[in-house]
Amino acid sequence: MCSVKSGESVAKRDPKVFVINHKYSKRQQHEFDSLSVPLRHLPENLGKIKLSCPACSYTFPPAWFEKQGVPLKPVKPKYETKGVEYTGPARWILTNISQKCPRCGTDIPIELPVNKLKTRGSLFGDDAQRGHDNKIVFIYSLVGADQSLVPKLEKEIRNLKGNICSSKPPESWSLHMKELWSGGHRKKHPVFKELSFGDVINISNDLCGLIKEQNLFVYNIALCAKKTDGKPGSIVNHLKNEAYILLVLNAIDEWTSKNAQPQIFFDSEKKSQANETIHKWAQETFRGSQHSLLYGFIAKGIEIPEPKFVVPASHAGLEIADFVSYVIARYHLRKWQGKDIEIDPASMGLVTYLGYDDQGHLIWRRQEGYPWDIFYN
Fold first, then answer.
1. Is there a contact between 309 and 263 (Cβ–Cβ < 8 Å)?
2. SS3 helix, strand, coil % of the chain, rounded to 5?
3. Is the pTM of the predicted complex or chain greater than 0.85?
4. Cα–Cα distance measured from residue 237 to residue 38, given in angstroms and rounded to the nearest whole number
5. Residue 204 and residue 297: Cα distance in Å, rounded?
6. With the CA atoms of 230, 132, 350 and 45 taken in that order, what torsion angle do they form, in degrees rounded to the nearest 10?
7. Each residue's pLDDT tens digit, 256-274
8. What is the mean pLDDT of the chain?
9. 9, 93, 138, 154: least surrounded by Cβ within 10 Å?
10. Helix, strand or coil for residue 124?
11. CB 268 within 8 A of CB 309
12. Residue 5: strand pairing partners
């Protein structure tokens, strides 16, 4: 059971506060039953929160990862007036939810944070993975900016691509590191075939400088496992799912703390003619997280659009995200091989890095340069 209020007046009605006790249809119940909460890490600041039962004085932490009956997200009103579908910006916003005292069963209300939406922006994501000996790493990166700054980012990438190849329109080809770095792929590429490896290093340095100068939001997560931990496909899928939701929720938490709404786009993993492609694993992972109390404290009453998977490299931000993921993936590979690092992540400026230490604790650092010693020593 929970309480909601309207974020804006709906159809010129005064905002209301009321209690909802949602009952699912059969289809909705089936969808709800298929979801699970994929979260298991609590931000340090939330670990200090405790509930105190007014009936028995028992003190306990909230059940942050317990599956809630409704998603803790704003709800669009169904009708403007009777029979007329609502299409406006107003939303019903969840303000509190109750949990039962584990000792006496008393319902204890938990007030949810509600921040006022002031700005919007875009984040663009891509992945990479590498393996060496018995080790495998899966990587996701997110790169973005406030909506007012995205056009400048697009212009900078167009200019950079124009410097690489002035004979072809920048929008007619994609900047993809796998094709640029590999000599075999480079020879077959209509734009990259004339480039030397020295040119590739220079382009990489230019990209690092662009990222640093644009003062972008840059997030990266790298999760590792041993190849002998299970079947190769299942290991990669586990790392991918966990990396995806940890990185997405970390970014959402920071943006909503700044009263901002991020729209998140990832390179599609599937070949499709459609502009957007549904990735069921990502959809279920994100929707499952919305049924946790933790999500309510991360989203802070701001409506977060479900991340979209779009045509690869269809935006300048996706080309930069591909570069960031490639740099960190190659950094891991070269470290494992004991070889020199060709592209130092420090050249990209401040990046928020996430990973596990050797005790299994999720660590994040915002710094220049990859925190290898923190994650792996």
1. no
2. 40, 25, 35
3. yes
4. 13
5. 38
6. 30
7. 999 999 999 999 988 877 8
8. 91
9. 9
10. strand
11. yes
12. 17, 93
